[in-house]
Amino acid sequence: MAGDSSFDQDKNKLAEYETSSSGSYKSSRGCFNSKTGELMGRNFFSWIKLLSFFFIFCGVMSTLFGLCMGIFFQTLDYYIPKLKIEDSMIGSNPGLGYRPAGGLGFKTINGDYKGLSIYSSLIWFRHGGDGNFDRLRENLDKFLEEYEPGFFANQGASLTKCDFESKPKLTDESCEFNKEWLSDQGADIKCISAEHYGYYYGKPCILIKLNRIYDWFPDPYDINEVRNHSTMPLSLKNDIEKIYEEKCDDDPNKYCPYLNMVWLHCDGEDDPDKENLGLVSYTPFRGFPGYFFPYRNQRGYLSPVVMVQLKNPTPAVLMNLECTAWARNIRHNRLKREGLVHFELLMD
């Protein structure tokens, strides 16, 4: 039979190798047989066939993969995400961010602090002439670079001046945000780089931003909802009431554009933290104006930011601070950090 013949041939071949007087196969078993010219049990033409198969196989698979990726990328837009708001993993509940971030950074072998740490939410500094707040100032300067005029190419073509009474923007337009607005002209110590953002004087400034969510609109409270809100901080209610009395009509049922805001409130998490925090000011707004939204990846888009300045925090006391955003469609969850941001402050 054919099977027996093949077996006999292999058996004879093995016996021939073992009885070979030259011993060349034994000395390089599994590699090269000088008698038959085989390399690892295969002759030249066998290797050509095997390598040709693998090259053709890899070529076909690479071509199929490239075609699949090409078709897949044709379904994506470089500027508009396929999944938005509720359908995306980000969801529809924005969080807050803050600067300066990075905590103390990483300590080198020489004892110097270098870089930023994503695991630290502590703002720890020493104020005064021998202060160590340079890294905090640099972090704020770096973040605010994009707010400098002309940072983005052709930025002026898409930016427009907006206010609470302006008309809705076009899809490719975004509102101007001037870096100079972050400087409170009535404050003795201003939140600017020239004055070390208040860290030199023991009046630190913390920049708060609302995280971007594509095509998200805030749903602001009306004055009746603010007055009847059960969990909104009393100081925030009072500030909104003042804005309403100054800017809006007396009719509470009439729409007031100056309430088109995502309100911001920063305070200590617990009663001891609130006592040690002292007075807090917000510049330029008491939150984030609604006319900056939605974010649609516009060219040169600038997120609205708020400078929160602590006027007289208690030195040498570790404080747990929390800033919350307030609108109808913003929920607060400390565990998931939704609608808020937490950080610690220690001033020596």
Write the H/E string, N to C. HHEEHEEEEHEEEHHEHEEEEE
- On the 0 to 100 scale, the average pLDDT is 85
Instruction: Count the domains.
Output: 2
Could you give a short account of the major beta sheet? 5 strands, mixed
Give a count of the beta strands, DSSP E runs of length 2 or more.
15
Which CATH class of the largest domain applies here? Mainly Beta
CATH architecture of the largest domain: Sandwich
CATH level 3 topology of the largest domain: Immunoglobulin-like
Kindly, what is the distance between the CA atoms of the first and last residues, rounded to a whole number of angstroms? 95 Å
Share of helix among residues?
Answer: 25-40%
- Structural class given helices, strands, pairing? alpha+beta
Please state roughly what percent of the residues sit in beta strands, choosing from under 5%, 5-15%, 15-25%, 25-35%, 35-45% or over 45%.
15-25%
The geometry reads as elongated
